[in-house]
Design brief:
- The chain is α/β, with parallel strands linked by helices and 263 residues long.
- The chain folds into two domains: 192 residues, Alpha-Beta Complex (2-enoyl-CoA Hydratase, Chain A, domain 1); 47 residues, Lyase 2-enoyl-coa Hydratase, Chain  A, domain 2 (Orthogonal Bundle), CATH 1.10.12.10.
- The chain contains twelve helices and ten strands.
- Bound molecules: acetoacetyl-coenzyme A.
- Acetoacetyl-coenzyme A binds next to helix 2, strand 6 and helix 5.
């Protein structure tokens, strides 16, 4: 493999806290603008955590001032259509959305453009009171390119997504909570702790069931109800070949805590 270990990219920091993998975006001087090395490092770290049997849930975070203020404008201002469409950069956001393990965005400060789209590619968002979400690309002559028009519309509905995308106006953390964009809003001092708490809760669940439940919930956004129900049923049945299903149900009947092994 030619790729260096993900933890080596200076644009991100990674650490494992028991079964929780933490990825911190680390370009604070430019509000974590998402340039190529950062996104490459992020995807590498995500894939490492995805492969690691000991990791049950992943957090992506920035710092108190910025989750990320978007794709790096200074990397693309001169690009032509031919050049930018050959560039694999935007597919890295798709990779985050396809992670088999649950991913939580712990967001404080700016989550704009590609930063908002990165948070939306995660499965859940824990926001600090200072978080602001927006798709300001229209103000610089373009439009969202890393999922914003699709993911925002699925969450907010057409009318609110349209206003955000066409005006570039930002949404506060409280507005995002009311709109169902984020799971919770907490004081800035504790957003990372709260995200970790949620991640540890999920990581303690049986991993096969978590993985399949995630797959089924995501599919609900893409397929009609009958197809979604059929997938759900197949995944439900398949869990009966796992040791964790036997253990979980036996523990309930024996009135004790289950001991899940991931088998
Ligand atoms: N790309 C590159 N650099 C960025 C950046 C970005 N997206 N956002 C901020 N920076 C840099 C600034 O250039 C500045 O660097 P210097 O000190 O070297 O000048 C530094 O970060 C601090 O930024 P500001 O001085 O602008 O800080 P502020 O507090 O006055 O403003 C802000 C903060 C409102 C977030 C402002 O920085 C801003 O508007 N940033 C751009 C937001 C944006 O348009 N994002 C969309 C990018 S395009 C995209 O994401 C496409 C896509 O769909 C994938």
């Amino acid at each position: 493999m030619s790729r260096p270990p993900a933890g080596c990219a200076k644009e991100i920091r990674t650490e494992a806290e028991g079964p929780v993998g933490l990825i911190t975006l680390n370009r604070p001087s430019v509000l974590n603008a998402l340039n190529h090395p950062l996104m490459e490092g992020l995807v590498g770290a995500l894939e490492d955590f995805e492969r690691a049997p000991s990791i049950g849930c992943i957090i992506i975070t920035g710092n108190a001032k910025a989750f990320a203020a978007g794709a790096d404008i200074k990397e693309m201002d001169h690009a032509t259509t031919a050049e930018i469409s050959r560039d694999p950069h935007l597919s890295r956001w798709d990779r985050v959305g396809k992670c088999a393990k649950p991913v939580i965005a712990a967001v404080s400060g700016f989550a704009l453009g590609g930063g908002c789209e990165l948070a939306l590619a995660c499965d859940m968002i824990v926001a600090s009171e200072t978080a602001v979400f927006g798709q300001p690309e229209i103000n610089i002559g373009v439009m969202p390119g890393a999922g914003g028009t699709q993911r925002l519309t699925r969450i907010l509905g057409k009318t609110r997504a349209m206003e955000m995308v066409l005006t570039g106006k930002r949404m506060t953390a409280r507005e995002a909570l009311a709109a169902g964009l984020v799971n919770r809003v907490v004081p800035v001092e504790s957003y990372l702790e709260q995200a970790k708490k949620l991640a540890h809760e999920i990581a303690a669940q049986p991993p096969m069931a978590v993985r399949m439940a995630k797959e089924a919930v995501l599919k609900a956004l893409d397929v009609d109800l009958d197809a979604g129900l059929a997938l759900e049923r197949r995944l439900f049945y398949s869990l009966f070949d796992t040791g964790d299903q036997k253990e979980g149900m036996r523990a309930f009947i024996e009135k004790r805590e289950p001991k899940f092994t991931g088998k």
